[in-house]
Design a protein that fits this description.
By secondary structure, the chain is of the alpha/beta class. It folds into 4 domains: 3-170, GAF domain (Beta-Lactamase, 2-Layer Sandwich); 199-361, Rossmann fold, CATH 3.40.50; 368-443, Helicase, Ruva Protein, domain 3 (Orthogonal Bundle), CATH 1.10.8.60; 453-509, Arc Repressor Mutant, subunit A (Orthogonal Bundle), CATH 1.10.10. The protein is built from 20 helices and 17 strands. The protein has helices at residues 3-16, 23-37, 76-83, 146-173, 175-187, 199-212, 228-237, 256-264, 281-284, 300-312, 338-343, 349-355, 371-387, 396-404, 410-427, 440-443, 452-455, 466-484, 489-496, 500-509, and strands at residues 42-49, 52-59, 70-71, 88-90, 115-123, 126-135, 218-221, 246-250, 265-266, 278-279, 289-293, 314-316, 323-325, 329-334, 358-361, 391-394, 435-438. Strand 5 and strand 6 form a beta hairpin.
């Protein structure tokens, strides 16, 4: 490789340093330039995040790789690269397992003997991450000088530094966000990561950042399994209360007789079994955030008492006349249509308006496009680690099946599906495989190729005039849709392609409400 070739490849990256570019595009250009400089079949840029490596950009690897989180302790090649001061090229007969085994595009078997090298990236003399290259041809990197990779790695570190400086400037413009970030770094505690790249997901993340910097009460709505608790954790982490506790309570998991005690606490002798004085969730969350999940399940009497606490910040433990002052930010979540519950007299209007100061809708998985593959990659890596496998991957038809499925159970359904399918597929192997590939058959998803009309093919026909037959059919379709969405009218309206209010009027006309 000549100095002219190296210079020609690196100059566009140098020019990019002074340009405003989205972080993802900046990293994509970085890998594209490296591919031109050092021809390979797969390349990746990974950031070190605690004990794991997080892929930021990949080239020649399956889409789900971006959703994986590689624990360094479980991937010896990564550990070797991170512990080296400069580039490392592994011998073609190295016995160290390759983290990308089964993930290289177009290669359905093992990587077997191949060329592999990588280089650590340092920011301010601290390890930041890795650049990795894999080639299927064992002779591919023979002629490559490691000095060229080192030169490229230095510029890659500058690129990363620029991207992170831009991000820090953005955080500085939002003081609350900066404080939350400083605390996160200082404490080493991180909330669970929200994975996705779709426009829908990015809009949700931006809205979380916006409301996180305030102290407004947030009502998170969305179908079962979309990750409403994860959103609540992200809001808390983005708030000025991030260094204070986040206390959670599932309102549906407790009988009504215990909900008040859990929320407000009790004194000794307040009821049978109250042997000691106990603080409630509000007092435990003082100064921080209280997350009430399934808030639609609260009784009218508990709603009234909660409303008083939200209005005055004062509460009384059960069996006590003493007032306790609390400073708590409330985040609530539900899969019910609370506005509809108010209209039907099952929910207090004043309490509903107190909860929904800032309503936040979490999109269903089917609305997030290819995010399903990133999330699948995250769960695949979790199960690979748990099951002690060298590689756990999806075949092409399995990826297509995931993209085509409607996901009524959302992210939770995907998580359970990956775990169940991996376990069953491993059980069907006579010998423990190095790479376990999940096919569409292993996933065993319902056939989604048939048109929707077939879904309702068993709807019972009726005799009579056309209007009566049409109304009867509409009742059955709406009822079936409501069953699929646990009687969440907003979700049913989205599936049926109707406005929520229009569906309500139609249901009333048909005698369903």
């Amino acid at each position: 490789m000549t100095a002219h070739t190296l210079l020609t490849t690196l100059l566009p990256l140098v020019a990019d340093l002074s340009r405003e570019l989205p972080e993802g595009e900046r990293y994509r250009r970085l890998l594209h330039a490296m591919h031109a400089l050092l021809p390979c079949d797969a390349a990746a840029l990974l950031r070190l995040d605690g004990e794991s490596l997080v892929p930021l950009a990949v080239d020649g690897l399956s889409a789900d790789t971006l959703g994986r989180r590689f624990k360094v302790s479980e991937h010896p090649r990564f550990a070797v690269l991170l512990s080296s001061p400069g580039p490392t090229r592994f011998d073609s007969d190295s016995e160290l397992p390759d983290p990308y085994d089964g993930l290289v595009d177009g290669l359905h078997g093992h990587l077997q003997v191949h060329d592999c090298m990588g280089c650590p990236l340092f920011i301010d003399d601290q390890p930041w991450g890795l650049l990795t290259l894999d080639a299927l041809d064992t002779e591919r990197f023979e002629r490559v000088e490691l000095d060229a990779l080192q030169a490229f790695a230095s510029l890659a570190a500058a690129t990363v530094n620029v991207a992170e400086r831009i991000e820090r400037l953005a955080l500085r413009a939002e003081d609350e966000h900066q404080r939350a970030e400083i605390y996160r770094q200082a404490s080493g505690q991180q909330h669970k990561e929200m994975i996705g790249q779709s426009k829908t997901h990015k809009r949700l993340v931006e809205e979380i950042k916006l409301v996180g910097g305030s102290d407004l009460t947030v009502l998170i709505t969305g179908e079962t399994g979309v990750g409403k608790e994860l959103v609540a954790q992200a809001i808390h982490a983005a708030s000025s209360r991030a260094d204070k506790p986040l206390i959670s309570l599932n309102c549906a998991a407790l009988p009504e007789t215990l909900v008040e005690s859990e929320l407000f606490g009790h004194v000794r002798g307040a009821f049978t079994g109250a042997l000691n004085e106990r603080r409630g969730k509000f007092e435990l969350a003082n100064g921080g955030t209280l997350f009430l999940d399934e808030v639609g399940e609260l009784s009218l009497s508990v709603q009234a008492k909660l409303l008083r606490v939200l209005q005055s910040g004062q509460l009384q433990r059960l069996g006590s006349d003493k007032e306790h002052q609390v400073d708590v930010r409330l985040i609530a979540a539900t899969n019910r249509d609370l506005a509809d519950e108010v209209r039907n007299g099952r929910y207090r209007a004043d309490f509903y308006h107190r909860l929904s100061v800032y309503p936040l809708q979490v999109p269903a998985l089917r609305e997030r496009g290819r995010d399903v593959l990133l999330l699948a990659g995250f769960f695949l890596e979790q199960n690979r680690s748990r099951m002690g496998l060298g590689s756990l991957r999806l075949t092409g038809d399995a990826q297509a099946a995931l993209l085509a499925y409607n996901w009524p159970g959302n992210v939770r359904e995907l998580e359970h599906l990956i775990g169940r399918s991996a376990l069953k597929a491993l059980g069907n192997c006579r010998e423990r495989p190095k790479i376990l590939s999940l096919s569409a058959q292993d996933l065993d998803l319902p056939d989604v190729s048939a048109p929707m009309i077939e879904e309702h093919a068993q709807i019972t026909p009726v005799t009579g005039d056309l209007r009566q037959a049409t109304e009867h059919y509409q009742r059955q379709v709406i009822n079936a849709c409501l069953e699929r969405h646990q009687h969440n009218w907003a979700s049913a309206a989205r599936e049926l392609g109707l406005d929520r209010a229009n569906l309500g009027r139609m249901a009333k006309r048909l005698g369903l409400k």
